């Protein structure tokens, strides 16, 4: 029999982030179990694209070797709508953890939330898609009382969204947000245009980043700027701007026009050296001003201007001196004056991203239990 303290957890997606999340969930549920007044967490469902593991009677699934058991599961996968039905019928509160990047799942959030199921997720799609979806999500959460948290959708585990919400909710006036929001772009520009030395050729740096696993399988998925635009869309909306979509403001793509339609990522990389002169020119023009070039996103709240693209920074600027693949996000506000509140550190990686998701789970627990 469930007790009022039981909270059921359903996890969709067990990839890089999902696997780390599961081990953090195991730690958390053990920690909470040690205190009789804490909620009791039960993992009742876990799924991947074509695999599912769940207990029809909502009995907790043991954590040991859970990813292997999921891979070996012979249970018939449930369509998403059936999964939602199953969770909505649970005799206790439910939190759905979406560790995928699926738009189909994101589109179901209003439905999930209106059934009283809370959501935590690093998936950007729901919050950076149409403005209508954004409104539907928060309207559904408000009317059912379910929670929806997505800290890791911007800057992975870095406290970006919670910081911005605190600034807004406590009455500070955020005037500008600016930063490097992509680990890939950070790595590329820190090596292409370092503050010390001259850096390599653009195409060579892109090839190196791919080799080291810093880019998507097709680097054009990083270089088109859309991922950064999605993150900016989320932050702009949180600060009150009605941004229609991530393509409704200027986003500079670093894919040469001629290579937009080449068939594969490999062909793209092969031909990229033909276009090195363009990026070299940008680098040299910044150097002539004693600056370096960086790929940044910014939101000018007062002017209602959101943009993503290349900008020049003094070598001493915090954005210029970023290291490795770190992210940096600066909040300029009335309270903080001329020196912005800066959040900086790893903006990608399974463990840190999962930490943001687990932190959100704790926030939901505080709310619902
Ligand atoms: N990795 C990072 O550093 C990072 C940082 C910030 C945010 N994020 C976000 O975190 C999320 C997960 O990233 P990841 O790196 O873990 O991705 P990943 O390794 O590709 O894993 C995605 C998981 O989702 C499953 N999946 C995809 N579509 C599904 C569907 N329709 N139904 C059920 N399961 C589905 C996949 O299952 P199969 O393997 O069976 O296809 C896989 O288990 C993404 O939204 C990403 O943008 C990641």
UniProtKB/TrEMBL annotation:
L-homoserine binds at residue 216. Residues 13-151 form the Aspartate/homoserine dehydrogenase NAD-binding domain. It is an enzyme of class 1 (oxidoreductase). It holds the Pfam family NAD_binding_3. NADPH binds at residues 100, 124. Pathway: Amino-acid biosynthesis; L-methionine biosynthesis via de novo pathway; L-homoserine from L-aspartate: step 3/3; Amino-acid biosynthesis; L-threonine biosynthesis; L-threonine from L-aspartate: step 3/5. The keyword Amino-acid biosynthesis applies. SUPFAM superfamilies: Glyceraldehyde-3-phosphate dehydrogenase-like, C-terminal domain, NAD(P)-binding Rossmann-fold domains. GO terms for molecular function: homoserine dehydrogenase activity; NADP binding. Its cofactor is a metal cation. It catalyses: L-homoserine + NADP(+) = L-aspartate 4-semialdehyde + NADPH + H(+). NADP(+) binds at residues 13-18. Keywords: Amino-acid biosynthesis, Methionine biosynthesis, NADP, Oxidoreductase, Threonine biosynthesis. Residues 159-362 form the Homoserine dehydrogenase catalytic domain. The active site is at 231 (proton donor). InterPro entries: Asp/hSer_DH_NAD-bd, Bifunc_Aspkin/hSer_DH, HDH_cat, HDH_CS, HDH_short, NAD(P)-bd_dom_sf. Gene3D superfamilies: Dihydrodipicolinate Reductase, domain 2, NAD(P)-binding Rossmann-like Domain. Its EC number is 1.1.1.3. The keyword Amino-acid biosynthesis applies. Catalyzes the conversion of L-aspartate-beta-semialdehyde (L-Asa) to L-homoserine (L-Hse), the third step in the biosynthesis of amino acids that derive from aspartate (the aspartate family of amino acids), including methioinine and threonine, the latter of which is a precursor to isoleucine; production of homoserine leads to a branch-point in the pathway as it can either be O-phosphorylated for processing to threonine, or O-acylated for processing to methionine. Belongs to the homoserine dehydrogenase family. PANTHER family: HOMOSERINE DEHYDROGENASE (PTHR43070:SF5), PTHR43070. This is Homoserine dehydrogenase. It comes from Oidiodendron maius (strain Zn).
